[in-house]
Write a structure and sequence with these properties.
single chain, 75 residues, alpha+beta
């Protein structure tokens, strides 16, 4: 028997050059699993103070996001 499930995630996603590598990876994983994906941008610029850190120099913004991945159960 195969079981489905839901994964929920709340995190920050760094955007550089108009895209977020984390969201690209989650999208690819969901597609590979045949799972549905919903991404909600909760706050488009939540961690502004972090952008002053040198390690974030290529980052345009950090958004708070909610992710829901759902894989239907099967038999």
């Amino acid at each position: 028997m195969r079981l489905g499930g839901v994964t929920l995630m709340y995190t920050g996603a760094a955007f550089a050059d108009g895209s977020a590598p984390l969201l690209d990876a989650v999208s690819g994983l969901s597609r590979d699993l045949g799972a549905s994906l919903r991404i909600d941008e909760i706050d488009p610029d939540v961690f502004v103070e972090e952008l002053a850190c040198p390690s974030y120099s290529p980052v345009e913004r950090i958004a708070a996001i909610g992710v829901r991945i759902e894989k239907a159960g099967g038999r």
